[in-house]
Amino acid sequence: MNEEISRILTMVEEGKLDKEKAAELIDLMQDKGGSIQQEKHSSTPYLDKVMKIRAASEGGDDVKVNVPIKLLKAVLGVGMNIAEKVPEAAKYIKDVDVNLLIEAIENELDGQIVDITSATGDKVSVIIE
User: Fold this and answer.
1) pTM of the model
2) What are the E-state strand segments in 1-81?
3) Which of 3, 9, 71, 94 keeps 20 to 30 A from 17, CA to CA?
4) How many domains does the chain divide into?
5) Which of 31, 3, 43, 13 is nearest to 107 (CA)?
6) Which residue range is the domain that position 84 belongs to?
């Protein structure tokens, strides 16, 4: 994924930008022929792709999670309903902008969508491929 979208998503995560403004900025960049590229016409149908989440700590702990886009779309659709009905679940998704994730899937964003490296060397990346 393009560096510009990563920066926009980071600003949303940090609370510097709300999701509506972020969506507007991304739309403007796409409409103006910006450098954002979506691979909607790849050989693999989008719903057959996988979201890969990778986390690696300086201490050697590695986490690798692969979630099929079909499953992710279904889970995100019911995720907010669960949080509303199960108060304990709300604390785990309070900082997750589910609507932004759903919008990314609906727009068939592809490639690296998150790339974070902490000051201590821990790394997190999220890739759709």
Assistant:
1) 0.54
2) 50-56, 62-68
3) 71
4) 1
5) 31
6) 3-128
